[in-house]
Amino acid sequence: MAIKDGKYDFKVNGTEFQTEYQSPTALEILMIAKQGGAIPNNPEEYALQGDKGLYQGVDRVNLEEDNVFLTIPLSPTQVA
Length: 80
What we know:
By secondary structure, the chain is mainly beta. The chain has one helix at 26-35, and strands at 3-4, 7-12, 15-19, 46-50, 53-55, 68-73. Strands 1, 2, 3, 4, 5 and 6 form a six-stranded mixed beta sheet that branches. A hairpin with a 2-residue loop joins strand 2 and strand 3. The N and C termini lie far apart (39 Å).
């Protein structure tokens, strides 16, 4: 992924997004992903798993180093 027009590209659960910040928090990334339909529940209920590690809450993510993520639920999954 690259910087386009001063924005940083990243992926969450296979969906591409952009932000103008190089080092957003995990929660900021999750909020963008929620708005874009990549996660079904509240952003606070997830962590991000990237190549460089696990990020959650106020953890800063350097999008030049790590920019492809899967979401990990923080609470047990409810069973119907």
